[in-house]
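To the team - hypoxanthine complex, inputs and output below.
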Amino acid sequence: MSKIYERLEKCYECFKSKISFTPEIALILGSGLGGYADEIRIEATLDYSEIEGFPTSTVAGHKGRFVFGYIDDIPVVIMQGRVHYYEGYPMEDVVLPTRLMKLMGAKVLFVTNAAGGVNYSFECGDFMLINDQICMAPSPLIGENADELGVRFPDMSEIYNKQLRNAVKKAARTLDIPLREGVYIQLTGPNYESPSEVRMVRILGADAVGMSTACEAIAARHCGMKVVGISCISNLACGVSSKPLSHAEVQETADRVAPLFKQLITESVRNISKEL
Ligand code: HPA
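Output:
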């Protein structure tokens, strides 16, 4: 058995011993969106610290837990707080929660994040449906392959599932919420980009830049999950606006649009579950 799977199984056994719940859809909530998990019909919660072998946070005051519950009658697991590469975890740890949610039974990974707008037509507070990605962080699949999860050289020709993207578009139309579409690029962070780096990622084809998501999407595709994702454009990327960037601005925008984002997630989950 691969070392990765061995560790994952231990985490899974730990989960199974505490909670009996089979999620259909797994959600990872980005900056400022964590509150969504408190608004669903909660069945159970599991703190990351209660799971043996789970990456434990080095960040003070970091709250991390799985929330199990229902959106309408759709069973979901929500990660309230994710694990970032910039915190110093190896990539294997960063994607362990994603793989664990697959073992729990989730067929879909629904990722959300706060991101900087690289595309000049984007405005602060916009939502962007992710239609493809560029992962500039190391691949989470480097090292021994977990054959139990997937193949050594997985195809990435459609990371973000077309049917599920259509389900999100339909949700946005129903709610009359404008939805942009584009390519998300993951850099390692934690520093924001320089103006030249933002120019570079624009030339590369990115519309939004952030510090998460792409690695989790790769791990999810590797183990056969369908993936769908939305970025909240929390700020214009460095050099697009002349204002210096701050986490406070990112947080402020995310908080401001959170009510609308929550509606979009709920309606999207409804439509996505119809596709499964
Ligand atoms: N750059 C990188 N990550 C981010 C940004 C940004 O401008 N905004 C939110 N996350």
